[in-house]
Amino acid sequence: PRQVGELEAKQALWRLHGRLTFSKGEQSRAIALHTRALKFAELARDSRAIGLAHYELSLCYRQVGDAGILREHLAKAASALHASGDKRHLALVHRLSGVLLGQAGRIEEAAMTFGQAERLATAIRAEDVLASIAHNRANLGLLTRRLDEAREHAERSVALYEAMGSGHGLAVSLATLGQVYVQLGDLDQASGAVDASIAYAREAGDRMTLAMGLWVLTLIGVARDQLPAARASATELEELVVDFGPLNWAWVMHGVAAV
Question: Rounded to an integer, what distance in angstroms lies between the CA atom of residue 113 and that of residue 248?
């Protein structure tokens, strides 16, 4: 028992170190740290810790763009987390799987996977997870031109984040809601949503969310035939995206970001 306790402590420390390194954008180091956490979790035969390590590794490989290894880690994470009964992180695994399926154009599978994630999150009343799933479903609606569904999900995501007081999640969802309103032709509503999103992003120094907001603001300027305003926001956007990888920029264009 003492040896198992030591192994569990080591995997938790390596996973924490990996998460901190991941937040700094050092993906190669984060992968090495989470791989070490996985090793200790396997030695301890801790299903939950094994699942968490695989999930963290999937997040790392999503950033470096290795889809094959990413899918492998997600499958192993789902299996281990299901065995351990960790519904919260299993919901997050299904959510990420849904995002990837949507990216690949497998729309019906993505919708079903988001449904699985939502049922798990609802069972444990994980409002933050539900808010992020609603945001992802709004983006799926945008991709498939199901705009009424997109609006419903985006408005739900905004409402959930507002209730929680989550600044980043709220700003991202507002940017997505603004894009939905643009597609619906409601430019006044779109402008209100995106202005609030951009205000938060500037204050927080959140470059990804700011890029999303500027993209929608450019769309609004074009739709209103206010070309100088559209050019100004587009120019600022171009200066921002120099630092983004191709995968992240693709998701900005669709209004989808990691929440």
Answer: 22
CA distances from 33 to 25, 52, 72, 185 (A): 13, 13, 18, 48
The percent helix, strand, coil of the chain (3-state, each to 5) is 85, 0, 15
Sign of CA dihedral 134, 140, 145, 146: negative
Single-letter amino acid code for the residue at 65: G
The whole-number pLDDT of residue 109 equals: 96
- What does the alpha-carbon distance between residue 159 and residue 165 come to, in Å, rounded to a whole number? 10
Token output for 61: 């490989």
Q: For residues 106 and 110, give the distance between their C-alpha atoms in angstroms, rounded to a whole number.
A: 6
pTM of the model: 0.84
Task: Flag residues of the chain having pLDDT under 70.
Answer: 1-4, 243-259
Question: What sign does the CA torsion over 129, 134, 140, 142 have?
Answer: negative
Task: Report the distance separating Cα 198 and Cα 174, nearest Å.
Answer: 9
Residue pair 169/128 in contact by the 8 Å Cβ criterion:
yes
Quickly count: other Cβ atoms within 10 Å of residue 175's Cβ: 31
What's the gap between Cα 170 and its chain centre? 13
C-alpha 243/C-alpha 248 separation (Å) is 10
